[in-house]
């Protein structure tokens, strides 16, 4: 399989339970809920995306002909020995490209594999840490994982219904949008009203990291 990577870089994970951990971010190109073109945003299934996942022109991006060469690329971005190796596979929608061969190749190099998915595709087997972030109006098939990250507010999503899904952690994260203050207030209100949820903030943006 050929993999299309938008960008790959070493940084700190900024979101969720793993926030603050050093990790290689591996961002695949492409998503099944939006083309990534602004002209299509209004009609997309997901229209609040804050990520550029189009093409392979970002730092560390490119085409990789097989799992081993991509895993070697990830390893080359890590600094230091094998201690604490973590790769966060994201996108776009990573389950369009993340396959068992790549998970195995990353494991061989000592990486724990975390992935961040919209949940509309089944998660690849062998992932060590799975974050699912549901989008209103989509059919989420992956209802089990380590953390459920709800970007809020999203009309059409009922947090009480999500609480029935099989996740270890339930995180509510204010939507990064023009109405940011209102989104923060809504996320705080949800966490205050429903103690199963924890407020998650985008620490990498506070720290000025990509
Ligand atoms: S599902 Fe995720 S990557 Fe795809 S458009 Fe929505 S926020 Fe962006």
Walk me through this protein's architecture:
The protein has helices at residues 38-41, 67-77, 100-108, 159-162, 180-193, 203-206, and strands spanning 3-12, 22-28, 62-64, 86-90, 112-117, 129-132, 144-152, 166-174, 197-199. The protein is globular, with a radius of gyration of 17 Å. A nine-stranded mixed sheet has the order 3-1-2-4-5-6-7-8-9. 22% of the residues lie in helices and 27% in strands. It contains six helices and nine strands; from the N terminus they run E-E-H-E-H-E-H-E-E-E-H-E-H-E-H. The model has no long low-confidence stretch (mean pLDDT 96). Helix 2 packs across helix 3. It binds iron/sulfur cluster. Iron/sulfur cluster (SF4) is lined by residues 31, 33-34, 46, 49, 51, 53, 91-93, 118, 135.
Keywords summarizing the entry:
alpha/beta, binds iron/sulfur cluster, 210 residues, nine-stranded mixed sheet, globular, 22% helix
């Amino acid at each position: 399989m050929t993999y299309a990577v938008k960008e790959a870089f070493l940084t700190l994970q900024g979101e969720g339970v793993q926030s603050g951990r050093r990790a290689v971010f591996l961002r695949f190109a492409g998503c099944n809920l939006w083309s990534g073109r602004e002209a299509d945003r209004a009609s997309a299934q997901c229209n609040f995306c804050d990520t550029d996942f189009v093409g392979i022109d970002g730092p560390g991006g490119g085409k990789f002909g097989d799992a081993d060469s991509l895993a070697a690329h990830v390893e080359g971005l890590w600094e230091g020995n094998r201690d604490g190796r973590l790769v966060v596979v994201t996108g776009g929608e990573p389950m369009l490209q993340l396959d068992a061969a790549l998970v195995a190749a990353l494991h061989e190099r000592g990486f724990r594999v975390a992935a961040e998915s919209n949940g509309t595709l089944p998660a690849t087997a062998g992932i060590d840490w799975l974050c699912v972030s549901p989008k209103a109006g989509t059919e989420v098939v992956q209802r089990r994982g380590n953390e459920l990250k709800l970007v809020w507010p999203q009309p059409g999503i009922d947090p009480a219904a999500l609480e029935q899904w099989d996740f270890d952690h339930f995180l509510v994260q204010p939507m990064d949008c023009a109405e940011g203050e209102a989104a923060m207030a809504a996320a705080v209100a949800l966490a205050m009203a429903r103690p199963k949820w924890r407020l998650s903030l985008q620490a990498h943006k506070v720290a000025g990291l990509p």
